[in-house]
Amino acid sequence: MRPPPLTDRQRRLGLVNAQHARMARARMLQQLKASQIGVRDVLDAADRDEILARIKVVDLMKSLPGVGPVGAQRLLDGIGIDSARRLGGLRARQRQQLIDATTYPIQWRKKFR
Fold first, then answer.
1. Which of 53, 70, 89, 99 has the fewest CB atoms within 10 Å distance of its CB?
2. pLDDT at 49 over 90
3. Where are the domains of the chain?
């Protein structure tokens, strides 16, 4: 089965919408990296905005100051969250565990080694 063909106008509109979504997600992660907002703020914003709910949890963790790919994966493994999970798919308990684990970054490094 093939999807219905799109007009040039529909295709352009889709590209523009995708670009706006990528920019919104990048802006949010950049604010987190600059310590302007916290993980709780990002999770709250993801509740209100479907575009932000599509951020992968591993990308959120890698955007924390001082956390790289290995640290992000260790953190998620320690909490028990799959790295392919997106913010919109987290349960309340997982959300709280993320907030607790990232409140004091020094503690999570000791805990999840």
1. 70
2. yes
3. 8-111
Percent above pLDDT 90 for the chain:
73
Q: What is the rounded (10 degree) CA torsion for 79, 39, 73, 24?
A: 140
What is the model's pTM? Answer: 0.82
> Rounded to whole angstroms, how far apart are CA atoms 22 and 96?
26
- Rounded Cα–Cα distance for residues 51 and 56 (Å): 11
Distance from chain centroid for Cα 87: 6
CATH top class, domain 8-111? mainly alpha
Contacting residues for 52 by C-beta, under 8 A, at least 6 apart: 24, 25, 28, 42, 45, 46, 87
- What are φ and ψ of residue 27, in 5° steps? -60, -45
Q: Find, among 49, 41, 54, 38, the residue nearest to 90 by Cα.
A: 54
Please give the average per-residue pLDDT across 65-93, as a whole number: 92
Residue 4 has what pLDDT?
Answer: 86
Strand-pairing partners, residue 106, are none
